[in-house]
Amino acid sequence: MDVQGLDWLLVPLQQLVSWGAAGAMVFGGVVPYIPQYRDIRRTQNAEGFSTYVCLVLLVANILRILFWFGRHFESPLLWQSIVMIITMLLMLKLCTEVRVANELNVKRRFFTASRWCSCGQVVTPSRWHTSC
To answer: Is residue 91 part of a domain?
Structure first.
């Protein structure tokens, strides 16, 4: 059996592998952020996630897109940048929502836990038994 007889199988297989590799390039950078997103959303705690990483990746991918206008490169890399920018914006949105909600809860707890002293000062729970 010669190679010419297998062209009907090799050409579609090569195209399929090429599309699979392009898809892995486009979405491969986003995959590690899926468990982080789910964990932050589930626990409502974004303390372990650095927003500076999002900033660096946003700048890098925006620069890559701007470079593409000057000198075109492969389209999967362009799509990777677009998908990564969308992912970083979603991560930043979630982190800011969680951090703002946590800060508001802390302020509410502090306000409800404090008492006013007869002299007009706020007395925190650690100083309840002391006089003004």
So the answer is: yes
